[in-house]
Amino acid sequence: MSTLSSKVQEVFDEPACGKNQAKGEKERKKGCTKQLVPGAAAGGCAFDGAKIALQPITDVAHLVHGPIACEGNSWDNRGAKSSGSSLYRTGFTTDINELDVVYGGEKHLFKSVKEIFDKYDPAAVFVYQTCVTALIGDDIEAVCKAATQKFGKPVIPIDAPGFVGNKNLGNKLAGEALLDYVIGTEEPDTTTPYDINIIGEYNLAGELWQVKPLLDEMGVRILSCISGDAKYREVAYSHRAKAAMMVCSKAMINIARKMEERYEIPFFEGSFYGITDMSDSLRNIARLLVDKGAPADLLERTEAIIRREEAAFWVQMVPYKDRLKGVKVLLITGGVKSWSVVSALQEVGMEIVGTSVKKSTLEDKQKIKELMGEDAHMVDDMTPREMYKMLKDAEADIMLSGGRSQFIALKAKMPWLDINQERHHAYAGYDGMVTLVREIANALYNPIWEQVRKPAPWEMQGDKKLATENTEHTEVLLGGFRSVPSVASVV
Fold it and tell me: Is residue 77 part of a domain?
């Protein structure tokens, strides 16, 4: 556990994080988040963060060493797509029991790894530590080392038990595991001056595939994506890339920074959401590669592609411009989406009345101010009741958020669109922006809203007092609502 403690402290002292370095030395040592106790997984625990950060590596068996509930809670909760193996969507767990807690679960873990290799023959096995196995002292690093020697394939320990912190800390600990055990352990068959890494991109709903054709046309090769639609070997030889793009600095800034230090791979933070940000990202990729020795004509090819794609986008926007102009949007998300989606929506004439910055860095907040002005309504932690009031008072016309907030919008009889990791539509790149605009228009102009806002039958019959009493019996509670038996249901 001393190794884990030192690793957590190292992550807390991340020099590439502007928010972290703005603190004094004493405050920096405390870290960015309050330490959690076992079971207190508010917003996701460290184990959950590590699992969702690495699970998109498709040809790896992800083995959870702990009670079965830990695997059930985290399985497939991020809609990452694969162009090859589907092994990553199979749930593996040691399912430890009371005897394992008393006598230790290390032998049980070793047998589980053997069974996985015998039945599935994966490229590697990632073993995730959980609260229970960490508390009883199971040494997963020793077991993984022995299993690697025995079976001749990588068995990687992911030491991020839930109680050490929140989901974001788990993302970074997962990155540390890749740096310690995976990255730099293999060599690619060939290299080119056009090889890049994309870090912090998870191919949600297939978003990476909306960007890859443009990079292919530029002549740029994605050597490794960490970790969307990735294969173990691609991550292992990612240290041979010439440049890197950091998509989500909140999650994996430590990977980008350490790869720059160890392997001299320059990186920039960018976004694939919105027309301006997408174009800027393509330009920055081309610029970094040219600076590292790629032919200069890459810049000209990139500009030609950008001009063509932007022109095609605005042609497709003609039917939506009048319908969406001035539409007020409440954005409840975080991290890179807190500013990248703001930029994307403003480009087509929509107005952002508030955006969540609970999971955003200092740089994210500064970008929001640049986009929305100094009076930007940045919400650090908006309660469900406050969200409901903002929607009900018509300060916003639609809410974009994760699935946990949808019931607030539905209770307020307002349109809602999923923008978080569980979504089924891909919003990256130029084509993705068209999809996002179309989905917002479909949600806003869905005829269901006209129907649900009509007076109830008993109101139309004149019994408005009874309708008022019924309404007063409905409370908004923590992301949903509770219906108390009304007079009508009793009579």
Answer: yes
